[in-house]
Structure formats: structure tokens, C-alpha cells
Amino acid sequence: SLVDGACSSFAAERHPYQAKVVEMLEQSLHALEAHTQKEIETAKAKVDGVSGDKAVRKEALLVAEAKLSECEGVEAQAKEALAAAKADHASKLEELKTQKKAQAQAEAPFEGKFKDIATIKAALQALEELQTVGFDGKKMKAVLHTGTSFSVDSSLLDSL
After folding, report:
1. pTM
2. Which of 13, 21, 27, 68 is the most buried (most CB within 10 A)?
3. Would you state the pLDDT for residue 45?
């Protein structure tokens, strides 16, 4: 080839065409060297930038891990508070159930008394109406029946 012939002879012995081939070869090699050097510098800049990017990413990772840890701590506290609130709620419900049962037991003897009070109030109202409106056999009978059922002295009932 032309390169082999041009490079195998001394520079002083070369034909002008061989000298031109060597010159073109030299220019090509310099251009290739410059291109390769440029690629090396670009790659080196990338590599040098990676360590800076790596430091930024590492810092971001540390911040994110710290926030995650903080959130996990808050979550654990919230779960503990929720568990305590549920337990407190359950105990309060049980206490309420017990209190309602105790109230029902305490009111049981009075249940009939509440009905008696309502009956007596109705009889008193009927008696007032008898006094203001005048005689009404039906109302009089209801008042007498109420008096009898509550063991009111018969002389008092007769005076009505």
C-alpha cells in the first residue's frame, strides 16, 4: 500500500507523492489524536461530575431516610395512641354498660311508682275539672276508682 511504501523509506529518499502520503497520514493521525483527546476530556468531565452528582444524591438520600425515620416514629406513636384510645373506649363502653345495668336495677322498684304517679296526676286533673266544670259521672267514677285502688280512706271518697 501507499502508506507502507512511504513509511519504509527515509524522508530524504521519498518521492514527492510518498511525502504527500506521509503528510496526509500525519494530518489524519493528529486529527484522530485531537478527536480522541476531546472524547477523553468529555468523558473525564462526566466522571468528575458524577462524584458531585453522587454527593448530591447521597445527601438527598440521607435527608429522605431521616424523614422516613421521623415519619415511622410518628406513625408508631399514632398507632400506640390509637391502641390506647381503643382500649380506653372499650373500658368506657363496659363502664357505661355496667352503669346502665345498675341504673335499671335501681329504677326497677320505682317503675310501678312512675305509673302510679301518672294515674294520680290524671285523677287530680279530673278532680279539678269536676270542681270547675261541674259533675261528670265518668270522671267521678275514674277519681273514685283511683282513690279505691290507692287505699284512700272511704270517708274521704264518700265526701266527693
Report:
1. 0.40
2. 21
3. 82
CA distance readout (Å), 75 to 16, 65, 82, 83, 157: 86, 15, 10, 12, 77
pLDDT value at 123 more than 90: no
All three cell numbers of 21: 502520503
Residue predicted with more confidence, 83 or 45: 83
Query: What distances in angstroms separate CA 38 from CA 25, 41, 44, 96, one per listed residue?
Result: 20, 5, 10, 84
What does the chain come to in residues? 160
How far is residue 20 from each of residues 3, 11, 31, 97, measured CA to CA in Å? 10, 11, 16, 111
- In the Cβ-directed half-sphere of 92, how many Cα atoms lie within 13 Å? 6
* Burial profile 12-24: b = 16 or more Cβ within 10 angstroms, e = fewer: eebeeebeebbee
Report residue 57 as a C-alpha cell: 444524591
